[in-house]
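Subject: Protein record for review, amino acid sequence with backbone structure tokens
Category: Structural biology, sequence-to-fold work with a learned token vocabulary.
Format: Residues in single-letter code; tokens as whole numbers, each standing for a residue.
Body of memo: The sequence and its backbone structure tokens, given next.
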Amino acid sequence: MISIASLAAASVLAACGGGGGGQDETHTLRFNHVLAESEPFHQGFLDWASAVEERTDGGLTIEVYPSAQLGVEEDIIEQIQGGANIGQNTDAARLGQYVEELAVVNGPYFVDTLEEVESLSESETLQGHLDALEEQGLKVISFNWVQTHRHFFTNQEVNTPEDLAGLRIRTPGAPIWQESVRALGAEPVAMDFGEVYSGLQQGALDGAELVYANIPGGNLFEVVDHATETNHILLINFEVVSAEWFNSLPEEYQRALVEEADRAGMETSQAMEDQIPEIKEQLEAEGMTINESPDIEAFREAGNAAYEELGLTEVRDQIWQEIGRE
């Protein structure tokens, strides 16, 4: 016979977001991301949270924590693996440390448009790698969150990969990022985003590869004066939760969490794309020169070396075939 004390304990566990059960229980996801509250993604996460709460009549709530308030990304992912009711906005480069093939998503020119991002859900190969990730305790509930294209921002004109030779370019430290920048002609330097301004100002860096929104956000137009639209990586983000926690939810709540994440992600991604012309006008007003027509084909060809170096050419080609990309 189940005691009253046991029932009370189960009720407390459900209120904290743990345990399985029906829709009379309430569940909470504490969602962490590294971006500031002013970033479009933060508002997108709040919209996602609001939609999920409304759709589940308050049965599932999402608490959004910006600026890494819950901790650094790598530590949070470890907690997620352990079953904590925490979520994290992350990227394929970091997830590639658990399932190597997933890093392909952050490779040069892997996809070019938001439509191609949506079509990735049709790839059996990619889904297989996500399943392998789930076996390690990490459940990807959406990868419809795209932070626009990454470009090179330097203090000299760049038109071809050869123009980047010898330039120290900041990029994140994961292998796919490092090899991508190296393949495209530059010398990669792993550095936290918060250190980029001082790195450029003091000459430790010759440039950085970032999305347009990062430049006014970090006042980087004060320390770089050339933008080169290489479009070399369309930055896809992954929303990750504990597989154990996700599977404890009622199926209706699982669907709400996934479907509303996909919807909010694509809406936020499109809004960020729509903001780029305004950002470019602002940067030009600050004196930045924008090269809209570098030799893209030369950069595309150079980017193949990153896949070859990391043994990801075959998985890339298989996914391309499955989504109808030549």
